[in-house]
Amino acid sequence: MSRYPNSSLFIYNRWGNQVYQSKNYQNEWDGHGLSEGTYYYILKLRAADGGERSYKGWIELMR
User: Fold this and answer.
1) Which of 2, 39, 44 is nearest to 23 (CA)?
2) Is residue 49 in some structural domain?
3) Into how many domains does the chain fold?
4) What pTM did the predictor assign?
5) Is residue 1 part of a domain?
6) In b/e form, how buried is each residue of 39-60, taking b as 16+ CB within 10 angstroms?
7) Tens digit of each residue's pLDDT (9 = 90 or more) over 15-53
8) Res. 62: pLDDT tops 90
9) pLDDT of residue 41
10) Which pLDDT score, from 0 to 100, does residue 14 have?
11) What whole-number distance in Å separates Cα of residue 37 and Cα of residue 17?
């Protein structure tokens, strides 16, 4: 993520509750402390030119 400094990651559970947030995400989220299941994310990448792109999707957390 060093190409996208000050990028943000938000993770939500299936009920829409935020379970993780990072305002300067460095690829460190591993789902620690969360149960198996489906989680939803919003990743906001800030480009060097000051622009921002948002990506949304889901992940399946399995242990």
Assistant:
1) 44
2) yes
3) 1
4) 0.85
5) no
6) beeebbbeeeeeeeeeeeeeee
7) 999 999 999 998 889 999 999 999 999 999 987 777 889
8) yes
9) 98
10) 96
11) 14
Q: How far apart are CA 40 and CA 32, in angstroms?
A: 15
Tell me the residue type at 52. Answer: E
The b/e string for 6-34 (b: 16+ C-beta within 10 A; e otherwise) is ebbbbbbbeeeeebbebeebeeebebeee
Task: State the residue for tokens 């992940």.
Answer: 59
State the Cα angle at 62 between 59 and 63, rounded to 5°: 145
- Going from the C-alpha of 29 to that of each of 9, 32, 49, the distances in angstroms are 9, 8, 26
Q: By residue range, what is the domain housing residue 49?
A: 8-61
Work out whether strand 37-46 and strand 52-61 pair parallel, antiparallel, or are unpaired: antiparallel
